[in-house]
Amino acid sequence: MKLLNRATTAPTTWRNWARSARCTPDRIIRATHQSDLVDAVRYAADRGLPLRAAGTGHSFNPLVTTSGVVLDMTGYTGIVALDPAAPSVTVRGGTLLRELNWALDKAGLALSNMGTLEEQTIAGAISTGNHGSGLAHRPFSGQVLALTLVTADGSVRSCSPEEDPELFAAAATSLGALGVISTVTLRCVPKYNLRVTEGSLPLESVLEDIEAYAGSAEHATFSLKGWSDNASTLKLEPTDAPVSAEADRRRRANTLGEVRCATAGLAGRIDQRSVRRIMTAQLGGGSGPADYVDVSYNAFTFPQPVKFLSLEYALPLTSSADTVRQVHEEVKRFGLRTPYSITVRFSAGDELLLSPAQGRTTTYVNITVPRTVGYTELLRTFEAVLLEHDGRPHWGKAHTATAEVIADRYPGWKAFQDIRAELDPQALFTSDYLRRVLGSTRPRT
Ligand SMILES: Cc1cc2nc3c(=O)[nH]c(=O)nc-3n(C[C@H](O)[C@H](O)[C@H](O)COP(=O)(O)OP(=O)(O)OC[C@H]3O[C@@H](n4cnc5c(N)ncnc54)[C@H](O)[C@@H]3O)c2cc1C
C-alpha cells in the first residue's frame, strides 16, 4: 500500500494540546489526499485495529487516543470549491478555521459565528459540537450544508439535510464514531465587521432576565469570577464601521490576559490570596473596557498559546439562571480560586442527534482552570452542579459523564446508536473512551 511507505510513523506518541491525553498507537498515518483516508480505513480494518481521526488535538479529553491507528488529518487541508453566489465553501476536513477564515476573507466572505479558537480543524470542531455565542445562531455545525464521510467499509458517503438527512443528523456531530469526515460544505455570509463592547453589571441584574440578556446583542456573552458579584459583559454586534486602530492591540491583550491567568495560577499554588491580587491589579497602558471594531473572525477569536483545562456543559436557557447562581456560589465556597473566568454563552437549538444544543435553546457554562491537581477537584465540584441541572457535556471538554448518564438527555440517542451499529458493526472507530461516553456498538434494535 503506497500510503504506508510515505505517510506513516510507527510507533510514536500522540498528545493533545492540553497534554491531558496521550497514546502510543500501533501507527500514526498522516493523510494528504482523500485516497489516504480510504487506504487508512482499509489498512486498519484488514488488521483488526481500531482507528481514530485526529485534528489538532484541541479537545481536553482522550477522544483521539487509541492503541490502533491515529489518522492525522492536519495535512489534509484546503479549499475544494468556493461558490460566491450561494455563498458556500467546501473544505477538506483537516483545514484549520484560521486558514478558512483567511480564504473566505479574500473572497469577500466570512462565517456567521464561531467560538474563541481558530487553531482547530473544521472536522474536529463540528465533531465535538463546537459553538460560539448568539441566540440567532446554532452551534458551529449549524453552518454545515453537507459533508462526505469515509465509512468502515472504505466507501465515501455524502450527506446533507436533503441527501440522506438521517445520516447527516448523526454525522454532523459524531465524535469520529461513524467514520472519517473528508470534506465539509459550509454556508457563508458576506464579510462583515463586529463592534466589540465590554462592560460590567451586577451578576444578579443579568440573571434576573437571562433570556433578555442573551438576546441583547447578536453575540452576547458574560463571565464571572469567584471573588466578585459582578458580571463582565461582552457584546459583539455587526457594524458598517471600519476596523479600529486599536483592534490588534485589543486582540493581543486577550492573549496577554491568559498569560496573566497562568501566572496567577502558578502563584496561587504558593499563596491562594495572590490569585485575586494578580487578577485584579490595574495594569498600565490605558486599557479600560473595550469598545472597538474588528473584522468578524478576529473579533470572535484570539491566539491562545497558554495551556489550561476547560469543562463546559449545555443547559436549557429557560432554567439556566438558577444553575449559574448555584455554580457561582460553589466556586465562591471552594478553597481554591481559579484565575480564569466562568464564561456563559448562548445558542439556538438544533436537530443534530448528538449536539449538546439538540432540541433546546441553550446556555453554555464553561469553567477554565490551571492544569494542577487541586483545580481538577474544582472542575468536579462544578460539574456535579451542571449534571444536576439537565446539563449535557461539551464533547471536547474535560467532562467525566458516562453513557449511562448522558443517554437519557438526548432524544436522538437511540437513532444515533442505530446508525452507528449499521455503519460500523465491527466497532472500527470505537475506543475505550468512546465506550465510556457513547457505550459499545450494539446491533440495531
Ligand atoms: C484553547 C481552546 C479554546 C477553545 N475554545 C472553544 C470555544 O470557544 N468553543 C467551543 O465550542 N469549543 C472550544 N474549544 C474546544 C475545541 O474547540 C474542540 O474540542 C476542537 O474544535 C476540536 O478540534 P480539533 O481539530 O482539535 O479536534 P481533535 O481534538 O483532534 O478531535 C476531536 C474529535 O473530532 C474527531 N475528528 C477530528 N477530525 C475528524 C475527521 N476528519 N473525521 C471524523 N472525526 C474527526 C476526533 O476523532 C475526536 O473525536 C476550545 C479548546 C481549546 C484548547
Q: What is the CATH C-level name of the largest domain? A: Alpha Beta
Instruction: Provide the low-confidence segments as ranges.
Output: none
Continuous helix count = 15
Strand order of the largest sheet: 17-14-16-15-19-20-18-21
Ends: how far apart?
37 Å
- Overall number of structural domains: 3
Q: Indicate the mean pLDDT.
A: 94
Largest beta-sheet characterization: 8 strands, antiparallel
Bound molecules: flavin-adenine dinucleotide
CATH fold-level assignment of the largest domain: Alpha-Beta Plaits
Question: Total strand count, please?
Answer: 21
Shape, principal axes of CA atoms: globular
Describe this structure in words.
The chain is of the alpha+beta class and 445 residues long. It folds into three domains: 2-72, Uridine Diphospho-n-acetylenolpyruvylglucosamine Reductase, domain 2, CATH 3.30.43.10; 79-190, Uridine Diphospho-n-acetylenolpyruvylglucosamine Reductase, domain 3 (2-Layer Sandwich); 196-400, Alpha-Beta Plaits, CATH 3.30.70.2520. The protein is built from 15 helices and 21 strands. The protein has helices at 2-6, 34-47, 97-106, 122-127, 165-171, 203-208, 210-214, 247-268, 273-280, 296-300, 320-333, 373-388, 403-406, 413-423, 432-438, and strands at residues 8-9, 14-15, 22-23, 27-30, 51-54, 69-72, 79-83, 88-92, 109-110, 144-150, 156-159, 180-187, 189-190, 193-202, 219-224, 230-239, 291-295, 309-316, 342-347, 362-369, 392-393. The strands form five sheets. The chain has an eight-stranded antiparallel β-sheet with strand order 17-14-16-15-19-20-18-21, sandwiched between helices. Strands 7-8-12-10-11 form a five-stranded antiparallel β-sheet. Strands 1-4-6-5 form a four-stranded mixed β-sheet. Helix 8 (247-268) runs antiparallel to helix 9 and helix 11 packs antiparallel against helix 12 (373-388). The longest helix is centred in the middle third of the chain and has 22 residues, at 247-268. Flavin-adenine dinucleotide binds next to strand 5, helix 4 and strand 12. Flavin-adenine dinucleotide is lined by residues 17, 52-59, 63-64, 73, 93, 115-117, 120-121, 123-125, 127-128, 130-131, 175-176, 180-181, 304, 394, 396.
